[in-house]
Design a protein that fits this description.
Elements lengths: L6 E6 L2 H12 L15 E3 L5 E6 L1 H9 L5 E5 H7 L4 E6 L5 E8 L11 E6 L2 H10 L3 E6 L6 H4 L5 E6 L3 H5 L2 E10 L1 E6 H6 L1 H19 L2
Parallel strand pairs: 1-3, 1-4, 7-8, 7-9
Antiparallel strand pairs: 2-3, 4-11, 5-11, 6-9, 6-10
Bound molecules: adenosine monophosphate.
Length: 219
Amino acid sequence: MNIQHDITIALTKGRILKEALPLLASVGIEPQEDLDTSRKLIVKSTVPGVSLVILRGSDVATYVRHGAADLGVAGKDMLLEAGGAGIYEALDLKIAPCRLMTAGPEGLGGDDASTRRVRVATKFVNVARAHYAKKGLHADLIKLYGSMELAPLMGLADEIVDIVDTGKTLAENGMAPRELIADISSRLIVNKASMRTRHRSVRIIVDALADAVTSKTSA
Ligand code: AMP
């Protein structure tokens, strides 16, 4: 891969990183250090000029929006929540699939039918606000940073908006999924200015990954 500019790719740590690394490796981009043992937050890759930074999902969109990273890999959930300003969504990488859903205690309804109000605990307050507004419900939103399933159990909220994969986490906490808000997978995002100023290099990486996704999904 002949990259002519310095390019930084921001990767979401955790599950997405685990699935993104083999995809990047298939196009020749591999970290030069073992990410499991290294404490470095920015590592060089095996492609000259290409560096990798490992971030929380919500920070990937921020780094790419401001041009601190040229490219990023983030869940669509994070992109929906962060909004699309300054970011170009180049590719569905079709990794880390899951669903963004409302959920609540099994056997109970969500909103108070008399007031059309519902108390919602979530990390995704912007997505939740839009979802309940579309349904004509007033949502009292409570921002949490983790363990959303706990909120209805503790009487903090009637419903949650959260990521659901197998549904095991919900079931183990006496909750059930209710409404699908969006199907989620990880996306390759590009800073809009980098798309112009580093076009050739960005294009090479986007095209290589597009081919890798196609051959993986048709295999
Ligand atoms: P599950 O019990 O399989 O439904 O998994 C749900 C939990 O795993 C949620 O609390 C999520 O935070 C997390 N999770 C599952 N899949 C993903 C994903 N693709 N991206 C981010 N988090 C996920």
